[in-house]
Each structure stands twice: as structure tokens, then as C-alpha cells.
Amino acid sequence: MIASTVKAVLFDLDGTLIDSEYFYYSNWAPILSDEFDLHITFDDWLKNFAGHTLVRNVGFLKDQFGIETTEEFMWTATRANYAKSDMTTIRLMPFAKETLENLRQKGLRMALVTSSYTTTVDTVLGHHELLDYFEFFITRELVENPKPNPEPYELATQKLGLTKEQIIAVEDTITGFTSATAAGLTCVAVSKHTTERQRLAVAKYLIEDLSNLLQLIV
């Protein structure tokens, strides 16, 4: 059990609160196939792309597959596909809303720390009526160095005005885990995917879904 002095929980978004990875995969895969003749499966996406920034994924495409593209092109192409898709179809992760409600009832403060942009947060969490659970949102626009850099969590810690011992982070990827722990926070890792769980084996707290979170901190 984590120390009972915890007063705030910082949540990641994609893969932690919302089940968005298949949405991203289904919008990236046609671009990779049509533009670069690269065909990836959903398992490939989870293993090699999920949880990473656009900058990293563009670099990965070049390093691993020799694909010469730019952040600007991939940004424009993926956003065009997102716009044609319906982000409100993205489901919540199991026990997400129940966990947020339970934490609020216990009096814990909550905020969101994500590499996604404000539009995604507003669209998906707004659709599921979850925006009011959070005190503030640290989105991609607000930081110069996204995860795995500690900057997003350092900014969130400053905004909370609490000690690091009073805050925990909840993340589903090694990218986010690295960011939170580098900022000096205790991080609960939550994932059911075998590949990511292997990467997250370094985590002291590793759970399969959010139903196990409450018992760790309350």
C-alpha cells in the first residue's frame, strides 16, 4: 500500500483512462500503407508506436524502416483522418469513471497529464462527462518537452503546490512511467498488454486495471 499521505492523483489519458489506441492505430495504419507501403498490425502498433510522441514515431519510421517523412506531414495526415473519424466512439478504460468518482468521494485532488492535445481531452472526456473531475489539464501544448521528459509532471506538481510524497501518478506505458518517476513521483503502472507489462516490470506497483488502484492509496 502507498503511504496514506497521498492527497492528489495525476492521471495519464490514452490507454489509462480512455481506450484510444485502436482509434489511433486505425487512423495511422492507412497512411503508412498508402503513402509508404508499410503494413502494420494492431499488435505492431502497441509494441512500437503506442505511448510515444509524434516526434519519436517519425524518427522510429526513419530508423527502423527507412521511411523519410516529416512531423508536419504526419501531423497533417493524421489530423485529417482524426477529423473524419468520430472520437466520441472512443470508450473509457474499465473502471475509469468508477475510480474517478471513488477518489473524488475520498477527497483526493485529481489532474490530467497527457501528451494529447486539448482538443482530444475536451472531445473524449467531454463526451463521457468526465472533465469536471479534474482540477487542471497538462496537455501537449503546455510543455516544451513531452513525456518521457519529466517536464509535464514537474509542471503538474508545481500547480498542485504539494510535496512529491503527496502525489501519485497513474500511467500505462514505460514512456509515461519514466516521465513521472524522473519527476520524483511514485507511479502506479496499469496495463493488461503483455508487451507493455514486460516493459513496466520495473514498477513497484503494477496493476491490470483501475479497479485495483483505490486499495493502493486509500
In brief:
With 218 residues, this protein is α/β, with parallel strands linked by helices. The protein has helices at residues 21-36, 42-48, 54-65, 71-84, 96-105, 118-127, 151-160, 174-182, 194-199, 214-217, and strands spanning 8-11, 18-19, 91-92, 109-113, 137-138, 167-171, 186-190, 205-207. It comes from Sphingobacterium litopenaei.
Mean model confidence by pLDDT = 94
Number of domains: 2
Give the helix proportion (percent range). 40-55%
The SS-based structural class is: alpha/beta
- Secondary-structure element order, as H and E? EEHHHHEHEHEHEHEHEH
The CATH first-level class of the largest domain comes to: Alpha Beta
CATH topology call of the largest domain: Rossmann fold
Q: What is the first-to-last residue Cα distance? A: 8 Å
- Supply Rg: 17 Å
The appropriate CATH architecture of the largest domain is: 3-Layer(aba) Sandwich
Strand fraction equals: 5-15%
* CATH level 4 superfamily of the largest domain: HAD superfamily/HAD-like
Spatial strand arrangement across the major sheet: 5-4-1-6-7-8
Largest sheet: 6 strands, parallel
- Global shape: globular
Number of strands: 8
Pfam family, one: HAD_2
InterPro entries: HAD-like_sf (IPR036412), HAD-like_SPP (IPR051806), HAD-SF_hydro_IA (IPR006439), HAD_2 (IPR041492), HAD_sf (IPR023214), PGP-like_dom2 (IPR023198)
Protein name: HAD family phosphatase
Organism: Sphingobacterium litopenaei
